[in-house]
Amino acid sequence: MSNELVWDRPEPPSKPSPTPLSRELIVTAAIRLADGGGLDEVSLRKVAAALNAGPMRLYGYIETKDELLDLMVDEVYGEIALPEPGTEWRSALTQIAHGIRAAAKRHPWLVDLLGGRPHRGPNSLAHIEASLGTLDGKPEFPTIDHVLGAVGAVMAFVHGAVRNEIAEARAEQSSGMTEEQWQAASGPYMQRMLATGKFPTLAKVMYDAEHTNAASYFDTGLSYVLDGIATRHTPGSTPGGSASAPSAPSAAPAGR
Amino acid sequence: MSNELVWDRPEPPSKPSPTPLSRELIVTAAIRLADGGGLDEVSLRKVAAALNAGPMRLYGYIETKDELLDLMVDEVYGEIALPEPGTEWRSALTQIAHGIRAAAKRHPWLVDLLGGRPHRGPNSLAHIEASLGTLDGKPEFPTIDHVLGAVGAVMAFVHGAVRNEIAEARAEQSSGMTEEQWQAASGPYMQRMLATGKFPTLAKVMYDAEHTNAASYFDTGLSYVLDGIATRHTPGSTPGGSASAPSAPSAAPAGR
DNA sequence: GTATCGCTCAATACACTGTATCGCGACGAG
DNA sequence: CTCGTCGCGATACAGTGTATTGAGCGATAC
């Protein structure tokens, strides 16, 4: 059939490298790439290349790129240690919160994925289970909805706080260095804004704030949330707030 | 010079449509697109097309696509009403929180951008200023760092909660409808996981939870945070938590 | 009035993305 | 030995953000 001589065709690379693949290999490769250069570095081509494979090869293990991202998230959740089953709820939740923050520091890209879509991987589920388990059964949390509300609040705070923290860190290191330099770097615009006098408190923040390290802001915020939960769910004490928030979730009429 | 006859060249579209452009026009067009089909619909080509312009035209008003996204975020911040200057801090912060949540409902794409990078647009700054202003000067918050810690915690919660809520809503409506259906839809895998018995609390959530509407989860969480702040910063009362979180941010040794 | 400069915008171009399709090549069954 | 099947690689396509180029026009200088 072929009129061309064998010599014309380049020798097929014998067995190019039928590297055996697996989801595990793929996601660890992807994670390594992401750790190095952010999520932009995670393209199917690059991940495949890192495994000496063609891009299409991955589709045997994955149906879409989003699935790969989901796997990455779940893998990182697997790195986070769960608290011992019997741990007191406050310290258990604190431990989980710190675990997530630490993981996000190791894998900054995590925050871009963190609540972007529900996490249903086995490790994620284990985490949710552990979090809920810290409160479930306690008499102060009579229904599962109370548990859900409390844990949800903690997780919402953690996600938001970590995301903000990493975002700020990224912005910092991408356009200057310390915040003192930043204050001069992003200055022209910022100086002008502050000079209008319309942002007095903000100005105080920029000039007077100690810029306490981020970890202690995180801890403070976390303790606010935990305190709030504890106060609401300690028999016989309702805090002095004037707001009319209900003391526990209940089917409210306001629809969504 | 030209050997070709006039007839060869198509008549230049007279004045194709030198539509006057402006940042305002561009971002509102982009927002309209995003509202309709999510952030994927916001490409420079599509935005430009919506304005009868070539893609490159936009680069006269914008230096990068990220800048456009920043402008969009700031525009939405502009939609959110600020509380009256004198408002009591709890209700002021509550109002801001609800404002952000409402905005995210109107513009679901907002959550994909919300803490992804620091927001420094004028409207964002006004919001930050207003939030900080609710606490600044109060004797219970002696330093600006206390104010920052409290407001930061509230904002972290709001961002995280809204993001989670929208993400869940998206997942729901993308693969089924109500959560009852979902429980059967995403079932195969979920059922199997729950059947392992390793997630007892999670199972309770899936089967027993009332699935109180999202708004009241949000309110509950928010009141936890506000309660926590109020309790810490009400003279002479420290809640019964056993955790060792400091009562106020301070330069801690733990570095980042 | 004419020539030249400069500026604005559109077209083209490039490198890259995620993914559908196709066809070759090896392997197992008969 | 032959044939079907299947896994995998190459190719293809539509789309992305952005750099570069070039054409057209208005205003300015003589």
From TrEMBL, chains A, B:
Pfam families named among the record's database cross-references: TetR_C_1 (PF02909)
Keyword Repressor: no
Binding region for DNA: 43-62
Bias kind Low complexity: ranges: 234-256
Residue ranges of the region described as Disordered: 1-21, 233-256
Keyword Transcription regulation attributed: yes
Keywords, in A-Z order: DNA-binding, Transcription, Transcription regulation
Location of the HTH tetR-type domain: 20-80
Listed InterPro entries: Homeodomain-like_sf, HTH-type_TetR-like_transc_reg, HTH_TetR, Repressor_TetR_C, Tet_transcr_reg_TetR-rel_C_sf
Gene3D superfamilies: Homeodomain-like, Tetracycline Repressor, domain 2
PANTHER family recorded: HTH-TYPE TRANSCRIPTIONAL REGULATOR RUTR, TRANSCRIPTIONAL REGULATORY PROTEIN
Protein name listed in UniProt: TetR/AcrR family transcriptional regulator C-terminal domain-containing protein
